[in-house]
Design goal:
Number of strands: 11
Distance between the termini: 25 Å
Bound molecules: pyridoxal-5'-phosphate
Shape: globular
Structural class: alpha/beta
Length: 412
């Protein structure tokens, strides 16, 4: 059983026949055009549907389609820079971001990512900007005292230190792979958005993992009423049926470019690939018809997401489980060698990897990630099942997971 949606990709389940059917129909009609010269009905119609899905904040905006998360992040970073140039703020080019974040594998995305292990050897190749702390309640840098404000204040200081050169702030509303579904304290994202607005930085929400319903809202920023200027999404956008990512920009950003040079200086050969767009469009319809975003909402007690949350809570009693955290259908399980002191396992043990292997041997796929404490130490699993999971399947999966944790401890 796929209990992590591969890598938090799949929200609708595997083998949904309508998606490949829509792709085949599109392929038979028109398989490809180059988007610098042409557009397609599927691109125009799907972009409008996606803007509607993203909500009122994106009315009059536009969508830039790519083949995945990293390409979308690169696109968003360049779009933010071009926006600042178009409005005459040519000094602004720095993109501020968070420690322990992950925004992708390409060099621009890597520059704004904060996870040590995933970027260390490439650092000489990238231009570094400031990183600020990412809220992490289990190991809160401020002892959870006024921490929403304290973390937000870090951003304000970083903007000051950038001396008028900061163009945008990019963040994951809920930490994805690298911290394992750490949900920020209430007020943090609202304050961050306010600070960015005050200092005229664009707000870029990286919803590659959290978008398209994964947390029980169309986009996770909606939990906190935050309205980003640019929203980046991928993974659940196509649930893995086709390579697809999207950058959704507000009218403010679009208008600045339209009124300036008139076009975005950017492009990939496979931007807005019609077959991928057909998959995404069919997926969006399926999401709506199946009420899957509602199913992924862990707040009402009767949803599968709420059942998952309650069931995972039972794992807290295990000796090696330090924290269970998350929202919707995105959960993290952090392991520690000592609960009282929160001491992580030694990185050489690869404890999360061992749990992952023991779970796989039992027929359960999870996503083990090392490094949540400081980029190297720390072990957690990311759990991101599809919204069609049943109560019985959750019960079985959590039972197998508990047994896998115990097995990894014994083998320790
Ligand atoms: C938050 C976030 N941003 C960006 C990416 C990069 O996406 P991709 O692997 O599709 O390039 C990921 C991938 O895990 C992600 O979780």
């Amino acid at each position: 059983m796929d209990f992590s949606g591969s890598a938090a990709v799949n929200l609708i389940g595997h083998g949904v026949a309508q998606i490949p059917a829509a792709m085949a129909e599109q392929a038979a009609d028109l398989e490809f055009i180059h988007s610098s010269q042409f557009t397609t009905p599927v691109a125009e119609e799907y972009a409008q549907e996606l803007l509607d899905f993203a909500g009122e904040n994106f009315r009059g905006g536009r969508v830039y389609f790519t083949c995945g998360g990293s390409e979308s992040i690169e696109t968003a970073l360049k779009l933010a820079r071009q926006y600042q140039v178009e409005i005459g703020q040519t000094k602004r080019y720095q993109i501020l971001s968070q420690h322990q974040s992950y925004h992708g594998s390409t060099l621009g995305a890597l520059a704004v990512s904060g996870n040590r292990r995933r970027r260390e050897i490439y650092l000489p190749m990238v231009k570094e900007f400031a990183h600020v702390g990412m809220p992490y309640c289990y190991r809160c840098a401020y002892g959870c005292k006024d921490c929403a404000r304290q973390y937000a204040a870090e951003l304000e200081r970083a903007i000051g230190a950038a001396r008028g050169e900061a163009a945008a702030f990019v963040f994951e509303p809920v930490s994805g792979a690298t911290l394992g579904a750490a949900v920020p304290p209430d007020g943090y994202l609202q304050q961050v958005a306010e600070i960015c607005k005050h200092h005229e930085l664009l707000v870029i929400a990286d919803e590659v993992m959290t978008g398209m319903g994964r947390t029980g809202r169309n986009f996770a920023v909606e939990h906190w009423g935050v309205a980003p200027d640019i929203l980046v999404t991928a993974k659940g956008l196509s649930s893995g049926y086709a390579p697809l990512g999207a950058v959704i920009a507000t009218q403010k950003v679009v208008n600045a470019i339209a009124a300036g040079s008139g076009s975005f200086v950017h492009g990939f050969t496979y931007s807005a690939h019609p077959i991928s767009l057909a998959a995404g469009r069919a997926l969006l319809r399926h999401l709506r018809e199946g009420k899957l975003v509602q199913a992924a909402d862990s707040i009402p007690p009767e949803t599968v997401a709420a059942k998952l949350s309650r069931s995972l809570d039972s794992l807290r009693s295990l000796r090696a489980v330090g924290d269970v955290r998350g929202i919707g259908l995105l959960w993290g399980l952090e392991f520690v060698s000592d609960k009282a002191s929160k001491l992580p396992f030694s990185p050489e043990l690869n404890f999360a990897g061992r749990v992952g292997k023991a779970a796989a041997d039992r027929g359960l796929l999870v996503y083990p990630v090392p490094g949540c404490v400081d980029g190297v130490a720390g072990d957690h699993l990311l759990l991101a099942p599809p919204a069609i999971i049943t109560e019985e399947q959750i019960a079985w999966a959590v039972q197998q997971l508990g047994a896998a944790v115990e097995e990894a401890l014994v083998a320790n």
